[in-house]
Every structure is written in C-alpha cells, then in structure tokens.
Amino acid sequence: MADDFVTPDPIRYFLTIWSILAATLSFAGNTVVLVASRKFRALKVDKVSVKLIENLAVADLGYTLVGIIPTIGALIANNWIYGRQFCVVNKVLTNIFFNMTTLLVSLLSVSKLTCLLFPIHARTRRSRHAVILVTLVWVLVTTYSVVSTAVSNPELYYDTVTFQCWVNYTNRIPFGTILVGWMLLMNVIIIISTTWLLVQVKILTLGLKKGAIAIVVISVIFTIATLPAAIIMIMKMAHVQFGEEAGPVFNIVTTYIFYISNFFNPAVYYFTIRSFKHFVDEKVFRLSVPETRNILTSTSPSRPTT
C-alpha cells in the first residue's frame, strides 16, 4: 500500500453512507432479536441455539457501538478525533466483539450439526449448558484481548485508507500470526460444519430443520465477510506485493464488507424462522397474522430441542 495514498472523497462519502446504514440496521435488527427472544420467546429453535443467537446479537451490537459508530465520526471528520487512549480501548473492545462473533458463529454451526447427528443426546441439552459455555468463551476472549494489549508496546496510527485507528504490536509475541491462524481455523471449522449441516438438512424432515437453514445462511454470510481479510493478511505476511492502488482497495473492501455480518442476521431469522417472522409481523410491522397470536402466547414451558 502506498504511504501517500488518500481515499478519494466520493469513496469516503459512500463509506459514510454504508456505515450509517449498517449501524442503523444492526441496532434495529439485533435489538428486535433480543426483545423477541428474551421477552416473547419468539425464537422457536433448540435451547442451545437460542442462547447462542442471543449472544451473537449482543456481540453484533457491541461491534456496531465500538467499531462502526467511531468509524462514522472519523469518516465525517476525515480524521481520528477520539484521542490516543480511546484508540487503545477501541481496538481492545473491537477485538473482543469480533472474536466473540467468530466463535459464536462457529459454535452455532457445530452445535446444530451435532444436534442433528445425535438427536437423542440433543434432547438432554439445557439452556444452562449454553450459558456456562458462552460465559466461559466471553471470559477467555476478554482476557486474551486485554492481556495481549497490556503486555505489548503498541504503536497507534490512523489509517487514512480505512479511516480507522489501528494498533501495531511491537513486541516479539506474534499477535498478527495468531490472529491470522485464528481466523483461518474458525473459517475452516465453519465451512466444514456448514457443508455437513447442509447435507444433513437435505435429508431431514421439516420438523428437524428448525433453525438449521438459518444457521447455514449465517455461516455462509460470515465466511464471505471474513475470509477475504484472512487471505489478504496471509498475503501481506508472505510479502506479496500489491499494486499502488490494489492494496488500498483490498483494505477498504475487507474492512467494510465485515459490516454485512453485523446487520444481516436478523433478516435471515425473519425469512427462515417462522415464529420470529410472526413476531416481527405482529409486533414491529403491526400486520394482522392469524397464526401469530397462538405462537407468541403459547404457555408451553419448553422449546423444541432439535
């Protein structure tokens, strides 16, 4: 990437509009998901998937708050306006929510796959199992992000190509290599489990497909949004030379394409999970859906487990 490259204003305007749209859709969509699940129990899928979906919505909201919103301010001002300390805090929190999103999508695809492969065992799963697992993951990811920053001597700089504050770790701990390896490993897990899950969905009855199609679509979208960034990082580590304009373009695309995974999931639930669609139609769009009331007011104490 050329050091003197400056993103043209038309592209900056487009990225501003894209970021505002992504933030708006993410806040609205993920808030609806949390309200629908926590208050109205409108996600009629297995209990483990429900908890993972809820935490995925929280992670997406968190990334929107600390990742997308500050970028909008930098895009409008054409400069990093938040200071050095917030740059460090911003990158720590962004890493936490990004890594949580990656792990939760992986856990969703693997969990649903094992649920379909071993339906009898799946019926023994309880919400508390998912709560324990997700809590452990949050603690581990947060600890790693905080410690990796605390033990390093980070160099901060404002990237005029992506309009974000970035951190270079100057110690000998290969955080960049760890991050690339992590991203690739999670993408491989997601691709393998999603492919296997897709095969299973094709041979199952409709009753066992609840939530599976949604998770397949979410996994595909996440892979599209993150795999290019991992590939570009590998190419940079291998000292592959980019063209004078190709490098900045790749950086812009791989940075801003990730926003798709933050706001698209609620739309996936709407079109693939019937109970969630009914909730949105009745409570959000105020449409008259005859079957919705029975679904949302059901007094059944249990959710489907497969």
CATH homologous superfamily classification: Rhodopsin 7-helix transmembrane proteins
What's the CATH class label? Answer: Mainly Alpha
- The overall pLDDT, averaged over residues, is 83
**C-alpha termini separation:** 49 Å
In the sheet with the most strands, the strands line up as: 1-2
Oligomer: single chain
The number of E-state strands comes to 2
Q: In CATH terms, what is the fold-level topology?
A: Rhopdopsin 7-helix transmembrane proteins
User: What percentage of residues falls in helices of 4 or more residues?
Assistant: over 70%
Query: What portion of residues belong to β-strands?
Result: under 5%
CATH architecture: Up-down Bundle
Tell me the domain tally: 1
The coarse silhouette is: globular
How do the SSEs run, as a string of H and E? HHHHHEEHHHHHHH
Description:
The protein has a single domain, classed as Rhodopsin 7-helix transmembrane proteins (Rhopdopsin 7-helix transmembrane proteins, Up-down Bundle). Helix content is 71%, strand content 4%. The C terminus is likely disordered. It is mainly α and 306 residues long. Strand 1 and strand 2 form a beta hairpin. It is built from 12 helices and 2 strands.
List the SSEs and their pairings:
Blueprint: H1 9-38, H2 47-77, H3 84-117, H4 119-122, H5 127-150, E1 154-159, E2 164-169, H6 175-203, H7 212-237, H8 246-256, H9 260-263, H10 265-272, H11 274-284, H12 292-296
Antiparallel strand pairs: 1-2
